[in-house]
């Protein structure tokens, strides 16, 4: 039984790693089931909860739905308000400065959970096009 549990967890984690688009848990369930239909939704939810608790993955709250991310190392996200995709940002320099300032107030922030909202390059381009018409 233990071996089966480990295997299921691996399939879930691998699916999340292959998917760079920060899927919601429902999207993850669909993708896992395309690979292995024998892994039920309850199992996937249970494993995701465990992975989150073990900090092997992170959850990005967009205010609409929670998205999952296998990359739990320092990076932050931009959420596109138009196409709802989540983009990874790895240049932490400006945020490190912000973090230091905030932590002078005696609180601690997790950079991995910072979510900025705006428009991705593609949607921004479309918007500009419309303006020029
Ligand atoms: Zn977009
Ligand atoms: Zn990410």
Describe the 3D structure.
The chain is α+β, with helices and mostly antiparallel strands and 133 residues long. The protein has two domains: 1-72, Winged helix-like DNA-binding domain superfamily/Winged helix DNA-binding domain (Arc Repressor Mutant, subunit A, Orthogonal Bundle), CATH 1.10.10.10; 73-133, Dna Ligase, domain 1. 48% of the residues lie in helices and 16% in strands. It contains five helices and five strands; from the N terminus they run αααββββαβα. Strand 1 (58-61) and strand 2 form a beta hairpin. The longest helix has 17 residues, at 2-18. It is flat, with a radius of gyration of 18 Å. The model has no long low-confidence stretch (mean pLDDT 86). The site of one zinc ion has 8 residues, from helix 5.
